[in-house]
């Protein structure tokens, strides 16, 4: 994602705020949500991909 922010500056030229498009804002929120979910699961054990695939096949959610 490439952002195209616009800055609001005060009388001295100091940046005081950022303007983003709604699309950019929503993408940033989604990224933050994803990062928060990753952080919450950091200590959980991992499962090998082959095991996940086998389980999905057994459950009928993935075809051979």
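^ Assign residues to that structure.
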């Amino acid at each position: 994602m490439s952002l195209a922010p616009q800055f609001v500056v005060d009388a001295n030229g100091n940046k005081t705020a950022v303007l983003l498009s709604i699309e950019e804002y929503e993408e940033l929120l989604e990224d933050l949500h994803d990062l928060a979910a990753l952080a919450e699961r950091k200590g959980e054990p991992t499962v090998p991909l082959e095991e996940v695939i086998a389980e999905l096949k057994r459950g009928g959610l993935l075809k051979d």
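The first strand starts at residue 6 and ends at 9.
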